[in-house]
């Protein structure tokens, strides 16, 4: 497995993965310490409740999302963001089609396994 991405990432050259119904993602760059991932959600798509040992910070690029993090709920839109501590249960429902930009530390090995 590669331990880092190429230096430059061009959206048109990156493959989309489909982790769930109505959800597509592109890995925009990574090394062993961090990873940035663009995630497109169709309206109504559900990011099922889950947890992982990574720290996560997310920027809402577009759309509207209902988030649940550690038992707390909020609706976020363009320009908003959120933080998920390691091992904290979280998930979302897409209220309006949109894109989230996720940053993980360390990188998500499970996203790189093919």
Description of the molecule:
With 114 residues, the protein is mainly beta. The protein has one domain: Sandwich (Jelly Rolls). It has one helix and eight strands. Strands 1, 2, 3, 4, 5, 6, 7 and 8 form an eight-stranded antiparallel sheet that branches. β1 (17-20) and β2 (23-30) form a beta hairpin. The longest helix has 4 residues, at 109-112. It is globular and about 35 Å long. The model has no long low-confidence stretch (mean pLDDT 96).
Spans of at least 5 consecutive residues whose pLDDT stays below 50 are: none
* H and E order: EEEEEEEEH
In helices, the fraction of residues equals under 10%
Assigned CATH superfamily = Jelly Rolls
Radius of gyration: 14 Å
Question: Structural class, judged by helices and strands?
Answer: mainly beta
Q: Main β-sheet: number of strands, strand sense, barrel status? A: 8 strands, antiparallel
Distance between the termini: 10 Å
- Number of self-contained structural domains: 1
CATH class: Mainly Beta
Note the beta-strand portion. over 45%
Cα shape: globular
How many individual β-strands? 8
How many helical stretches?
A: 1
Identify the quaternary structure here.
single chain
Stated plainly, the CATH topology is called Jelly Rolls
Q: Identify the CATH architecture.
A: Sandwich
Question: What's the helix and strand layout?
Answer:
Elements: E1 17-20, E2 23-30, E3 35-41, E4 46-50, E5 55-69, E6 72-76, E7 81-84, E8 90-105, H1 109-112
Antiparallel strand pairs: 1-2, 2-3, 3-8, 4-8, 5-6, 5-7, 5-8
């Amino acid at each position: 497995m590669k331990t880092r991405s190429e230096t430059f990432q061009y959206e048109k050259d990156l493959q989309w993965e489909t982790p769930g119904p109505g959800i597509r993602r592109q890995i925009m760059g990574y090394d062993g310490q961090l990873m940035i991932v663009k995630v497109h959600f169709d309206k109504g798509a559900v990011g099922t409740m889950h947890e992982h040992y990574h720290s996560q910070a997310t920027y809402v690029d577009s759309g509207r999302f209902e988030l649940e993090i550690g038992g707390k709920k909020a609706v976020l839109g363009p320009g908003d963001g959120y933080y998920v501590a390691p091992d904290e249960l979280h998930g979302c429902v897409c209220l309006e089609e949109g894109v989230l930009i996720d940053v993980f530390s360390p990188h998500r090995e499970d996203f790189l396994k093919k």
